[in-house]
Amino acid sequence: MDDLVRGSFDVDGRRLSYLDFGGPGPVLIALHGHFSEGADFAPLAERLASSWRVIALDQRGHGESDRSGDYERAGYVADVRALLDHLGLAQVALLGHSLGGANAYQFAARHPDRVTALVVEDIGAVCDIDLTFTRKLPERAATRDGLVEALGAAAPYLERTFRLRPDGWGFSFDPADTIRSQQALTGDHWHDWLSVRCPTLLIRGAHSDELSAAHARDMAAKRSIPLVELPAGHVVHHDQPDAFADCVQQFLTAPEDRARA
Question: N- to C-terminal Cα distance for the chain?
Answer without folding.
Answer: 34
